[in-house]
Amino acid sequence: MALWGGRFSDGPADAVFALSRSIDFDWRLAPYDLRSSLAHLEILQASGLLSSEIAKQIRAALHQLSSEVAAGTFLPVASDEDVHSALERGLTEKLGEIGGALRAGRSRNDQVTTDLRLYAIDHMLEIALKIVALQTALVAKGEEYSDAPAPGFTHLQHAQPVLFGHEISKHAHAFARDLDRISDWLARSSVSPLGSGALSGSSLPLAPEKTAAVLGFTSSSANSIDGVSDRDYVAEALFILAMVGSHLSRIGEEWCIWATTEFGWAKVADAYSTGSSIMPQKKNPDMAELARGKAGRLVGNLTSLLTTLKGLPFAYNRDLQEDKEPLFDSIETILLVLPAVTGMVATTDFDREKMALAAPLGFSLATEIADYLVRSHIPFAQAHEAAGKCVALCESSGRQLHQLTDSELADIHPALRPDLREVLTVHGALNSRTTVGGTSPQSLKAQIEGLKTLISNDEKKFLDKQAAFSAMMGA
Ligand code: ARG
Fold this sequence. Notes:
Blueprint: H1 14-20, H2 23-26, H3 30-46, H4 52-71, H5 83-95, H6 108-144, E1 149-154, E2 157-163, H7 164-189, E3 191-192, H8 208-214, E4 219-220, H9 224-229, H10 232-258, E5 266-267, H11 286-309, H12 324-347, E6 349-350, H13 352-358, H14 366-375, H15 380-397, H16 406-412, H17 426-431, H18 441-474
Parallel strand pairs: 3-4
Antiparallel strand pairs: 1-2, 5-6
Bound molecules: arginine.
């Protein structure tokens, strides 16, 4: 059903209708469109523009339509252009002419962006809680391996030993920042555009700030032109999702490396691996690879919207219809990847022995020699030089650092005494990293406790927000 046509002598050409049509993707907005229609109805009634008798009929029809949409018994048809026209058709089928009454004081321009905000808020809350589940799995895995030494890397080369629990736990912090970003985004996006009309507000006695409150928004748009054209909330959501995707991708990359035959650290559970159609022995970490691969489209979606927005003139332009598919795709992609990565993390076992044996390799204890000399008040530049000479001597003679003789050590630097060997152990190196955020067992324990508190606070915060949103939707 077309929502316009009075001034046209002919309907749209097939090609025009085909290009215009957004119903194939914007049908996802149906529940939010129905909810915002109920809010709009309330204000039309309160302002005396609709009699309570008519309002009652429309309200009943909207509720019925909501149930039918939820049950899948009311569906778009080929002639529906978008979610708004499909639902107005539904209302008119039930109510006859008064089905069109809701259009007073409202335009699809303010309607569509109100719907999209509600959709985005709903789904970002769902994503936040799935991120919390992933953090919980990461911290549990981190705790499980909080006593397991492993090599730590820079440039993918052995650098200094770390506790493997420290390595795993780092990811939970990245997701904590993503949750912070979602909280900030929620606060900034809580503005209702409903009431902005086509672009200039309305001459009818509406109260946009009241509609905003009914829909759970903190405020209504302070400028109606901005109200219909602002898509910052979509761009920011896409950035957050691209960032989450990048964090998931980095987990994926690590899992891929750790699961190689060469590393042999990670044993990914069968349920989170896939096989090969030709090589019977293969067990591939496809979930890790997909987590890495999906990051590309998430970045692409952000780029796509920013490119659409750049240079758009004032108020609504049809280009803005292009805001939806990137957002839907990024949300749906993240909702697919998060549970798969969470399951993969929770069910992967790591080879403690292999990691422990590898921890001191690659002269990863060389920094201990330099730090030992610094404790004897040798300037770090000299200490670094002496430790480097120890490494060179070991390399040329095929030995490890602790195998250098007393006289070789003294020759390199007189302050290198035999008790140096006490710090040349993985445990010594780990235990000495006691700074806040360091890898010592006690620092890691404090870190994990901190993460647990953070995660449970975040979980409570997002559950409360989700409950409030559901209550608003169900009202
Ligand atoms: N399907 C449109 C969109 O997604 C709805 C708004 C149409 N507004 C208009 N003036 N043609 O943006």
